[in-house]
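User: Could you go from structure to sequence for me? I need the amino acid at each position, not a summary. Structure tokens:
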């Protein structure tokens, strides 16, 4: 009886399937250079997840910086609006006199 590709996949240990999924999803690739030992595959998974995590930290830091700048500008605009309202009131009072 000849084995099909599906039967070959079913015989693989579960950790190899996780290795393939994580390496593929993290866009590291599953190409010509890949780990062959269990330890190597585990380290590859940790490094791929670590890289994704570092990218997430970098992205959130940049977003936080711009958010803080935006909040500071909004406070400044609110203060300017208050000052403009005071100036308008003073101008109206001067016209009435």
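Assistant: Here is the amino acid at each position, in order:
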């Amino acid at each position: 009886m000849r084995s099909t590709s599906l039967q070959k996949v079913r015989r693989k240990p579960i950790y190899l399937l996780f290795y393939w999924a994580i390496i593929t999803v993290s866009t590291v690739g599953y190409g010509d250079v890949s780990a062959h030992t269990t330890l190597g595959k585990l380290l590859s998974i940790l490094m791929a997840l670590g890289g994704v995590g570092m990218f997430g930290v970098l992205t959130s830091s940049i977003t936080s910086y711009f958010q803080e700048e935006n909040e500071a500008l909004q406070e400044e605009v609110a203060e300017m609006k208050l000052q403009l309202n005071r100036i308008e009131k003073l101008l109206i009072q001067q016209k009435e006199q």
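One structural detail worth keeping in mind: Residues 38-96 form the longest helix (59 residues).
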